[in-house]
Design goal:
The protein is an alpha/beta fold and 83 residues long. Helices cover 29% and strands 22% of the residues. It is built from two helices and four strands. The chain is globular and about 40 Å long.
């Protein structure tokens, strides 16, 4: 079972990623790193995708296929109204 975590390089996302790893799950992170940090991800595959971009759907489909993703936890978000 592989879980894709959007926003997995953010503060909350990184905690979710670590919990999934502790449960012996395979994890892949998708984050645009606009507020996230590579250092929070550790040895989990990190794919840099802006999920608001026009081509995000194709990029996500490719990522999910390549990593055998069967579930998604969507945490990616902008936290300021202006964003």
């Amino acid at each position: 079972m592989t879980v894709l975590v959007t926003g997995g390089a953010g503060y909350i996302g990184a905690h979710v990623v670590r919990l999934l790893q502790r449960r012996d799950g395979q994890v892949v992170v998708v984050d645009d790193l606009s507020t996230g940090s590579v250092g929070r991800v550790g040895d989990v595959p990190l794919i840099s995708i802006n999920i608001a971009a026009d081509d995000a759907r194709d990029q996500l489909a490719t990522t999910m296929s390549e990593h055998g993703v069967d579930s998604v936890i969507h945490i990616a978000a902008k936290k300021q109204v202006g964003e």
